[in-house]
Amino acid sequence: MSLSSGTVGQIPAVAPPRTRRGGTPHGRRESLTGLLFVAPFIVGFIIFSALPMGASLLLSLTDFDPRAPDEIRFIGLANYAEMASDPVLRESLWVTVRFGLIAVPLTLGFALAVAILVNSKLLVGRNVFRTLFYMPIQIPIVASTLVWIGVLHATTGWLNLGLDAVGIDGPNWLQSPTWVGPALALMGLWGIGNMMLIFLAGLQSVPTELYDAAKVDGAGSLASFRHVTLPMISPVLFYNLIIALIGAFQYFTQAYVVSNGRGDPDRATLFFNLHLYREAFGFFNMGYASALAWLLFAIVLGLTIVLFRTAGSWVFSGGER
Amino acid sequence: MSATAAQARALSATGPLGAQMRRFGAVAGVTLLAVTIVSAFLMPLAYMVATAFKDQSQLTTVGAPLYPAARETFTYEGKELDVYDVPTPDGGVHAWALLEPHREDALFIDPANPAAGPILWEGRWRTLQQHWTFSLRIENFTNAWDTIAFPRLFFNTVAIATLSTLGAVLSAICVAYGFSRFRFPGRNGLFMLMVATIILPFQVTLIPSYAVYLSLGWVGTWLPLIVPHFFSNAYNVFLLRQYFLTIPRELDEAAMIDGAGPFRILRSVIVPQAKPAIVAVTLFHFFWAWNEYFLPLIYLQGQPDAQPLAVGLARFNALYSQEPTLIQAAAIMAMALPVVVFFLAQRAFMRGVVFGGVEK
Amino acid sequence: METPRSVTRRRPVRVPAILAALALAVAACGGGTPATSQTASGTPAASATAAASQGSGEPVEIEWFVGLGTGENEEQIPVEEAVVAAFNESQDGIELILTVVDNTEASDTLATRIAAGDAPDIIGPIGIRGLQSFGDQLLDLSPYIGSVDLSEIDQALIDVYKVDGKQIGIPMAVYPSFFYYNKTLFDEAELAYPPHEVGEQYEGKDWTWDTVRELAKQLTVDGAGNDATSADFNADDIVQYGLDAQFTENDARAWATIFGGSGSAVADDGTTAQWPDNWREGLQYMYDGIWTDQFIPNQTAVQALADGNTFQSGRIAMDVVHQWYTCCVYPGEGEPQVTDWDIAVLPEGPDGKITSKLHADTIGIMDTTENPEQAFEALSFLTRSPELIQIWGAMPAIESQRADFFAGLDDRFAPLEIDWNVSTQMLAYPDNPSHEAFMPNFPEADSANKDLGSKIWTTPDLDLDAEIDAHVELLQGIFDSN
Fold it and tell me: What is the number of alpha carbons within 13 Å of residue C276 lying toward its C-beta?
């Protein structure tokens, strides 16, 4: 903290008017301070991320087989060319996109609804409800996937036993190409804990006086949600959206577990990353898998940049400049 | 509440008491809604708890109840026999023990009168109702505890999760502050670069990362699981940056006028204002580290004494001898501390932040 | 706060060529980025570690990697730990280190470590299928093998581990397959037990898969007590199945071999895909057993039966499994559901022969090891340890050790008296070629076979012949892309 007191002395007592351009002595100092604060990221990136990322990019230009690292050969863009004739790739992209289009809005909406519910002053025992809604993601993954396989079993699973009790003949969730998607979406809903927590943190940032003002203006609860809550939590909504998007494209663990690692039934769960994983470690085509990874990277980064571009029009920021 | 309700009944439902009534109705409605949603939501959790307390044989027995139960048995000539409700032609129903089943008849023993010997019953024993009694199999917990050296693994998990969280939160606060409050050349590019680090699937960076840690001499230690987090990660930084952006700049500027430098502003303005988000980041990083499975498995293989619980649990999930009851029992023990931590920590979300909480 | 247990690997770290190459490349591409200084400082650090580790007079560390086959069960690990400790006690020059990895991740983990230049020294137990993935990375043991007496081992078995002229393993364990049958369920149905001797008839009928079908249908029962031969039988409420072939992991080759006899998906030219007629018959038998006569459980039913360990549930009358299943017929926990069981010989297949598909295990040395002699010393100790063989349920490849092995099993399963003579008889009818034998582009071809198995297991109303024709075409494409 000695650093901070040292810096304090150099800051003028009166803040200068905001400058839009750097280049002034103050701007240069601001740049330096900013870089100092983000330095941990820069250093960490160089040590821990740059090399692996660069390596995977280079590997995508080779026929790398992890079992025989010495036999690596440079093959140029052949892996990228191979993608054009890989029918499984197209299939797996479609599986992923279709799932993302359903699961992302569904989980975002449900997480927000639950966050509002457990933030409500009208709810007795909020502490307990928050804990209960958060709990599922605290279950170790080895255990929770087994729980879901048990619960979703066609004949002995509790879900179908429950549906049976009200006269509905439940489907064979995990072994029907039609129903495995909804089943995975259902499993996804169970993991809303973090999203809920982030929305909850966002809801805390909505100044209560804004609600009071809205009430004075005669706004109903729906209107104040639209005109006060949504804009004020838009930064964390944006965060959750980006993270959910990345998560959807990287969807892997659940798909791996319910599909015997092969995209069963009938490739209905052959998500992009599962295809990539099979190429990398199932078939040991690490070079091709790396190329697939960079294709995914380009797609997701592109989408992310587009979202960031549009963010200015709908994401509220009180403090950015 | 009951006094209020009684008064409300006595008086007319208008005026301040009417408002109170309406409020009570709203509270009851919202709470009821939450109870309904949470019960459906937690059904799989109930399945998990029930499994943890069952005998493994109950999982596959036809007609076994859904709750943990033991078969009622009667010991006859050294053999444990299952007890069934057996209807007889005289209209009675007897609790008899099944000695020798056949397809169209069976021999039973009357536990009340075993000396009478086997009773021949005509009919299909599979259609009979078996006797089960509620019974919790606590041994699942003690066996799981002993098998995976629970205290040792628990300690490892706490240590790894705490250290990595400490590093992750401190570095994320700094970096997010840098990204949200200062302008410097290449800021947006750097930020996108950071987001990009989480976009590339880990499957293809695994081998190069392993090679990096190997050359650092870190394979076989906790370091690959802890040290990188001291250099911040995109999930945490991105979230905090988003939250910091909602904090009005007027607060910083007011502090700056009072002579505060960037570190002081961070400490006395940003951090207190962003407490809910910082708590959120702390919690989710901690729980993520608590349950992280694949990286500890890769970097701590062959060292069962240094592994965290999530890896130890997998011992009950061997390909050819799965023990679901032990997995669930161990999982419940493993999540006990995180659940308590969450329960205590979520108080941070109890009060709304009042605009301009810091003096202007 | 305790610092993490620092276990620096004392044996030389082979900084992989790939990492060095990449460091250079990144430095070149990165231009003026600070990456240059980082990579430059990273490499010397690693070589310094390597140099420091070489001079010391400490024992040589040899790492044994378990998880590619059996050996990762919760009750097997303490026995393996004890054998490793015994070896370390017995001498000073070598310190053997045990690494057990969960089967699901074992292959990925091993590939990662090989790629990063951090391969273990010894891997195993590893089966014939595992050799298809990692056999090329195993050391030729011929120079070291002189000290080992192989005279008692069947030459055919030794040849299983001869790949491209290299002897990559010593046969350690063999696992013939046979019927495990639940005597309680036969008693309940008042049916005679299946034959224990090759050539014996069953109730006046030849012991063929057709006879097994009739028997299995009688042993398949619904909740009301009707068996599968009855007109009242309710297929939606089956509580007990007559037959299963558990732990075959959807592998169509395994199923075709069990029910159809020996065969190969590759023609003699080594490049043409095929599916022999006896294999078609075998798969058809299985498919009809699952979906028409319903005496074999489909995948949904199997998951309801003890998560795949179906015989253990007590609701399977006859189950084709290997000798190694003695590992898992009693679980570690809870009351056993199968209290009275024995084993029986397999019937004659459509090709007129008995086929008992065979598994075999070995332990191998990775060709990257720095200390092959010490690794071989440790390997010899492991292959001679009867405790390991016992806990893995592995019938010793060496004939004279078998009596002790079966006596050990008798102790474990007392008071049951299992007729191990069945197992010895079945050893004479191995599948040849193996159902796990080589195919071009093995991992992908193997995966395609499992896709077919998965389809058979989960989909009713298939035109199986058409599916197999399409499968052969698919296999051909995979073979050709090699």
Answer: 20
